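Two records follow; treat each independently.
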Amino acid sequence: MSVTLPRPHRFDVRIAVAGLLGGVAMWALGLYTSGSGVLSSTWGLISLAVMAALELLRRTRPQFALAAGSLALAFDMVTTGNAATILMYTDLAYAAALYGSPAAARRVPVATGLACIAVTLGFLIWWRSPQALFVGLGAAVVSFGPAATGALVRNHRDAAEAARLRAEQTALLAELDRTQAVTAERARVARELHDLVAGHLSAIAIHSTAALSVDDPSTSREALGVIRENSVDGLAEMRRLIGILRDGSGDHEPAPAPTLDGLEALADSARDNGLDVHLDAMHGPLPAPVELAAYRIVQESLTNALKHASPGPVRVSLARRDHCVDIVVTSPYGSRATPRAPGSGAGLVGMRERASLLGGAFTAGPEGAVWAVRATLPLTEGDPR
């Protein structure tokens, strides 16, 4: 089974070629370092060639290159020595800390520092002279200095990469927040638009059908009056909503949020449209979000009763408990073959969303002979239901 080594980086190839050619040129000119000279200068070409070959691995196998380079440098020390070999070794020490594993980036400076101390102590014992300190200093310049520099550069590079990732994550979170805010605002506007206009349009549809199907001038005139009233009210509500959406236009004052004090007027409007509404509402102020949600749920329930309910009483009940408000709206169910006006189901979705946003509960469905809408709205977020 053959092992394929990764292709060396082009910059590493240039370093290897330049180091090899420079070392050969120094050897040819007789430029040597202060090696021991135990072996002739020709033997130094071996360590030079090995060091140049290891430069090809400085980025892909940095720890192996440093370990093998240390052996090649030790061999070079017993020859006349070559400056190019020493310079390439310093680059291997630098690359081992910069391109090695995170653990290697921490270990290489420590290992080279300990090696320099060991070399200094060894020559002090051997020579018994302060001159041995210069040997340790040279070893530090060749190994510890480049390794520490590589570790420092790596730390800066990692810090810059971490900052870049944090900036990308912050931008991503900001975009997600913006998208969620836009989606929530669209849902809120859709609920408000549906609750403001659906009731008026349903009344218009029902009374226009009655005016077209009954050949009675008085009935038609009465239906047209209801149609006109709902058209004017719906147009006014639409204009107020558009005024709110126009940022800074100054053309429209925002309409005050409806409260439970307006339920009686809402019931009277439903009675004018033909519903037999019986209202049993609590009195007293509630938190503004709860009042708005309760009003809209009752409003949409009456709209649905106008479109779908069979003839009979529509009962609206609001009762306050210690930590919540209970809303119940019932209407006759079961005997009408087709609805008086078409529906899309958005009303039930909107009521459920309003209750959910407050941490409340919502149900709607048939209960025997009636259709019941039940909602429980906590007065404070997180209150038990």
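The next record belongs to a different protein.
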Amino acid sequence: MSAVQDAQTINLSEVVGALSFALDITEGQPVGHSLRCCWIGMHIGMQMRLSPAELSDLYYTLLLKDIGCSSNAARICKLYLTDDLDFKRGFKSVDDSLPQILRFVLANTGTRSGLADRFRAMINIARNGGEIARELIETRCQRGADIARQMRFSAQVQRGILDLDEHWSGKGQPLGLIGETISLYARIALLAQVIDIFHTQAGRSAAIAEIKLRTGIWFDPHLVAMFEATSQKPGFWSTLHAPTLSAAVVALEPAALARHVDEDYLDDIAAGFAQVIDAKSPFTSGHSDRVALFSDMIAEGLGVTPQRRRWLKRAALLHDIGKLGVSNSVLDKPGPLDVDEWAAVKQHPAMGEAILSRIAVFRDMATIAGTHHERLDGKGYPRGIAGMALGLETRIVTTADIFDALTADRPYRGPMPVSKALEIMEEGRGLSLDPACLDALKRGIVLLEHVAA
């Protein structure tokens, strides 16, 4: 089946549900966290007898609650001198009591840094901790709401994402909203999130005990009562870790309001997730968009059809989705990577391929995510694939990716002039780079320079 045919028949819920796995790894959560939250939250909504329209908005709020999560990763690494994935994973288990927060911060700040650096970080956090927390959450939630808007989700979904970290008592972030001034969808999503985290870590009893402790503080007591009622139903708990969870979550979307994605919507979804990917590091801002632009330019120069070029641009936008699972302590490191850090970087193509392979309409572009760091001479990674075993589209994206990496700012160097970047790329002709793709890139750059002049 072609990409066009898939686009006419695939449900939006399937695409977003599968892409939510990328958000799970960015938050340091076990795979399936967003789906499990959707299962829990939708049952709360159904117990409340929300209308189909309300359930539809709740559904996408739950799947996309973490869509802004990559935007504060670099800042967390810088402030706390730690691995952002480990930090986020652990912090989701902490309540808002000062002793718990202090213990967590002391245990997780600067654990791999020297004593002097760790001390300076601790002093900064002690002086500015409240403002730091507000800034990190505001960045995450505002960015998430902005991306949801670009992906055509309603104002109610956007507000649900924006209010995710507000607490019933008014002690949440970033605005300190209280009670029913907080979006209903956000209140359900936060409750579902904590239930899943504690259930996954320690089982049903631990989840229920934690919810009771936070009722009236973090959580709306009425929603907790709705959860207690619906959680007694057969299959509620067992489905959370069943192999059928993905299908069960797809079936929860109100059937009358189920949305199908067309070609234009797929473009918006790919562009939205490209923003999630590039927000992971200040050094990759705009990278996916530029790789898509350069890939399209090369493809046009090689005579690729407009329809296939459209498909290729989506693949280029999503080629680095696996980087969401790599810590910023590695991505943003200004010096050489050690053996373990390099091994972490080399995992991102396989992670990207695994994520995209879950989505029927993106499955045939998963190979590009998995092979864009391979080389013609077989010395690339992760598999050492060589020669024409690498498809033309992969060779195009690889060329575009290398050109942008050389001409963009990086933690270990400034951007190179275009002429210097092309000289370096010329040394890889026939080794790391396809000669025809390189020639098409050069022709395209000459044309761009002529237009700019």
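Discussion point: The CA atoms of residues 6 and 370 lie 21 Å apart. How would you locate this feature using only the token line?
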